[in-house]
Amino acid sequence: MNLEDLGRALSARPFGTLERSAIGPGYRGLPGAFTPAAVLVPLFEAGGEPRVLLTRRRGDLRRHPGQISFPGGRVDEGDPDSLSAALREAREEVGIEPGDVAVLGRLSETLVVMTGFLLTPWVGLVPYPYPWVANPGEVAEVIEAPLADLERAGAHWTETREVHGMVHELHFFTLGKDTIWGATARILFELLTVGRSA
User: Fold this and answer.
1) The domain containing residue 40 runs over which residues?
2) Which of 73, 78, 68 is nearest to 89 (CA)?
3) DSSP secondary structure string, the chain?
4) Would residue 34 count as lying in a domain?
5) I want to staple 117 with a disulfide (CB 3.0 to 4.6 A). Which of 37, 53, 95, 183 is the partner?
6) CATH of the domain at 67
7) What is the pLDDT of residue 24?
8) Inter-axis angle of helices 3-12 and 182-197, to 10 degrees?
9) Model confidence pLDDT, tens digit, residues 62-119
10) Confidence bin at 59 (pLDDT 50/70/90)
11) Are 56 and 139 in contact (CB under 8 A)?
């Protein structure tokens, strides 16, 4: 995948917005239902190949313990917009300064199936090497994942499950000994799909 071509493809495509009316009533009573959230999808080149930065969340966290994810979180009142929230969270979680991110564009808004958060993914280029600084209160490990590993045959699959009264197509990726799933896997699938069409 060429990151320059990916950037052009992202800037040319319309933003996908999740239709609220399509979200089933089982989500409306959840504590996090429809809470705006955002993540940064940090891309960079290392050793001549494109990579994506992922984090392993600490195993003792209340939400999504031990999962592989992107830096991100809910949009706070002090955040002007979802991009600002994504950049703030990336700085807090892994030490990426907002001024070091060249924003390429946005992927489709997506539902976090277990909590009902409405998540906006922003894609940005980060210079490399970069002095990642994992926040010890949230991040157990910073992962530099080659996109080629996620695109290899058999790395991706889907399953259908009913959650909170809605049937969802859940995406999964294998990365080494880890399984990436949930919103992170859905975002990766869209990113790779856009990259292949660029």
Assistant:
1) 3-146
2) 73
3) --HHHHHHHHHHSPPP---GGGS-GGGTTSTTTT-EEEEEEEEEEETTEEEEEEEEEPTT-SSSTT-EE-SEEEPPTT-SSHHHHHHHHHHHHH---GGG-EEEEE---EE-TTT--EEEEEEEE--SS------TTTEEEEEEEEHHHHHSTTSEEEEEEEETTEEEEEEEEEETTEEEEHHHHHHHHHHHHHHHH-
4) yes
5) 37
6) 3.90.79.10
7) 86
8) 100
9) 665 668 999 999 999 999 999 999 999 999 999 999 999 999 999 999 988 888 899 9
10) low
11) yes
CA 11 to chain centroid = 18
Question: What is the structure's pLDDT at 65?
Answer: 61
127 domain residue, yes or no: yes
Number of domain units in the chain: 1
Q: Is the pLDDT of residue 36 over 70?
A: yes
Residue with tokens 């003792």: 60
Q: Give the pLDDT confidence score for residue 91 in this predicted structure.
A: 98
Q: Could you tell me the strand order of the sheet in which 166-175 lies?
A: 156-163, 166-175, 178-181
CA distance 185 to 23: 20
β-bridge partners, 171: 158
CA separation (Å) from 128 to 41, 49, 122? 15, 11, 19
Residue 155 belongs to some domain of the structure: no
